[in-house]
Amino acid sequence: MLTIHAPGAGEAVLVEGDRVAAIGPYEELASAYPAARVRRWPGALGPGLVNPYGPELLERAYHPDPREADVLGTEPILDPSFPVDDARRGGSARRGVQRLLAHGVVAVTGELRSRPVLEAARRSGLTVLPRAALPAAPPSLTAGTPLPPLRVGDPARFAVFDGAVCVATVVAGRLVYRAR
């Protein structure tokens, strides 16, 4: 299926399957591909972000279930002594991945070893990249550097930001996060 992602500022991106098929002004893409589905977004579209804290945020942190918020709060628990069994680890990893996607993250660095965490990353399409060195700053969901600029033929993984707020994240051509 063809989809045109049309941001409020900058060039639009045509996605076919899991790849970037074309980049250009919305009017030109819409004229050339009239059958394409159109998704309009406020803000600007750019490459997704790479968060350098994959293992720290997905394996070592615990992302509380919303039903635990009254006791544990809503922020990730970074205390390594916090007890987490495999069942809770899987749910925590899924919530952690969703939180990363909500910040425009499409890839993390670091080696993921836990089966539930690897499964959560795989299912979402989150790319896991090797890490050269651990950053000196503490782990953060908002840390990230952009991937190289989008090019035709590249994997369709990008984010749309309206100011500092991520309004949409696309991974492997799929819309995996949309702000409400």
> How many strands appear in the DSSP assignment?
11
Helical proportion, percent range: 10-25%
What count of helical segments does DSSP give? Answer: 5
Cα end-to-end separation: 24 Å
Describe this structure in words.
With 180 residues, this protein is α/β, with parallel strands linked by helices. The chain folds into two domains: 2-47 and 149-178, Urease, subunit C, domain 1 (Roll), CATH 2.30.40.10; 49-129, no CATH class. Helices cover 23% and strands 33% of the residues. It contains five helices and eleven strands; from the N terminus they run βββαββαααβαβββββ. The protein has helices at 26-32, 54-58, 69-72, 86-101, 115-124, and strands spanning 2-9, 12-16, 19-24, 37-47, 49-51, 105-109, 127-129, 145-146, 158-162, 165-171, 174-178. The strands form two sheets. The chain has a seven-stranded mixed beta sheet. A four-stranded mixed beta sheet has the order 7-6-5-8, with no helix packed on it. A hairpin with a 2-residue loop joins strand 2 (12-16) and strand 3 (19-24). Helix 4 packs parallel to helix 5 (115-124). It is elongated and about 55 Å long. The model has no long low-confidence stretch (mean pLDDT 94).
